[in-house]
Design a protein that fits this description.
With 275 residues, this protein is α+β, with helices and mostly antiparallel strands. The protein folds into two domains: 166 residues, Regulatory protein AraC (Jelly Rolls); 90 residues, Homeodomain-like (Arc Repressor Mutant, subunit A). Helix content is 46%, strand content 27%. The strands form three sheets. Strands 1, 5, 8, 10, 11 and 12 form a six-stranded antiparallel β-sheet that branches. A hairpin with a 3-residue loop joins β2 and β3. α2 packs antiparallel against α3, α3 packs across α5 and α7 packs across α8. The protein is elongated and about 85 Å long. The chain starts with a helix and ends with a helix.
């Protein structure tokens, strides 16, 4: 991600602040054009639909869309509320530093380092940045061009960092989900924390933190819960002795199994079967 910003050199061409509304007598207001400039489109209120060359994308609060050049663009709001947005028209080059010399390159594909349309859950700071950028651009005081260029750079960096953190969270959640599935399939076996952590390539302590974050309890508590659930099924659905049930659900000491069962369920295994 940061390699892109090492060379990224933007130029702001225009900053727009707009609103699409719905009138009962005239239908839905539509923004329609053929794009001749790169655009960054940010919805901070309302809902709608954006079409690029006929392909629809849902718009809602917190959506960021980058619009390439030479595309047929259509944006319409979803009534009854207006769709409010900021749009930044821009261009950029990639700068390659070679000692004291620099080389300005036209990128083969002009796009920012994220998907065409991305939702941002935490976008309030982004809205403030957009408002400030629009105000500075509109007032056009001395030095405004450099200010908006810096704000735009930081804005793109903020978006990229949010998406990068989300990807890391998604990856961590998938790892914990895989671990949960492993527990359900291997509850009879010895399930030490370090073993589970190694299976998802995490340290033991970080694994425990992530597990509690996504599952709501510690790995040991979850393993115990799964084993006791299986034990209750066996106690009610079979004639196996308590000792055999304990061994089949992963407890190697039947007395310890009985203590844990009684503590967590509120009755002894035998009393649970007879109830």
């Amino acid at each position: 991600m940061y390699a892109f910003f090492d060379r990224f050199y933007p130029q702001i061409l225009d900053v727009l602040h707009g609103k699409l509304e719905h009138w009962e007598t005239h239908g839905t207001q539509i923004y329609k054009k053929s794009t001749s400039k790169l655009c960054l489109f940010y919805v901070y209120e309302g809902q709608g639909v954006m079409e690029l060359d006929g392909k629809p994308y849902i718009l809602a609060e917190g959506i960021i869309a980058q619009i390439p050049v030479r595309r047929k663009l259509l944006i319409r709001n979803a009534p009854p509320h207006p769709l409010r947005y900021f749009m930044i028209e821009y261009d950029f080059k990639m700068i390659n530093w070679q000692g004291e010399l620099t080389q300005c390159e036209e990128p083969p594909e002009k796009c920012l380092p994220f998907d065409l349309v991305v939702p941002l859950m935490d976008h309030r700071g982004l809205r403030s940045d957009m408002q400030l950028l629009y105000r500075i651009w509109s007032e056009r005081k001395e030095g405004f061009s450099g200010q908006v260029k810096l704000l735009f750079f930081n804005l793109i960096l903020r978006i990229s960092e949010q998406l990068y953190e989300r990807q890391k969270d998604d990856s961590a959640e998938r790892s914990i989900r895989d671990c949960v599935n492993y527990i359900h399939n291997h509850y009879q076996e010895s399930l030490e924390r370090e073993l589970l952590a190694r299976k998802v390539s995490l340290s033991g302590s970080y694994f425990s933190v992530l597990f509690k974050k996504y599952v709501g309890c510690s790995p040991v508590q979850y393993i115990t819960r799964v084993r006791l659930d299986k034990a209750m099924q066996l106690l009610r659905g079979s004639n196996k002795t308590v000792s055999v049930v304990a061994l089949e659900v992963g407890f190697h000491d039947p007395l310890y199994f009985s203590r844990v069962f009684t503590r967590e369920i509120g009755v002894t295994p035998r009393a649970y079967r007879e109830a």
